[in-house]
Design a protein that fits this description.
The chain is α+β, with helices and mostly antiparallel strands. Helix content is about 15%, strand content about 15%. The longest helix has 9 residues.
Length: about 70
């Protein structure tokens, strides 16, 4: 655990499309909030998720299959 007692965030793998280490976690401004990960190089992004961990799991899923939250 890191400072504040929160678990450490899972590192993002390289983009499965362009291979760059450029994934960034994002959140929508609309309510309800939706979380996704987007590649800043090629623009590939996950589908919207209700949790940040769900978006991270989809991004890091090597087979490219979407996973439900």
């Amino acid at each position: 655990m890191n400072y504040g007692g929160r678990p450490r965030r899972t590192e993002l793998k390289h983009c499965r499309i362009c291979g760059m280490d450029s994934g960034v976690r994002k959140v929508t401004v609309k309510v309800p909030e939706k979380f996704y990960v987007v590649c800043e190089v090629c623009g590939y992004k996950t589908r919207p998720h209700t949790t940040q961990s769900g978006a991270t799991r989809e991004w890091n899923n090597e087979r490219g299959e979407s996973q439900r939250d």
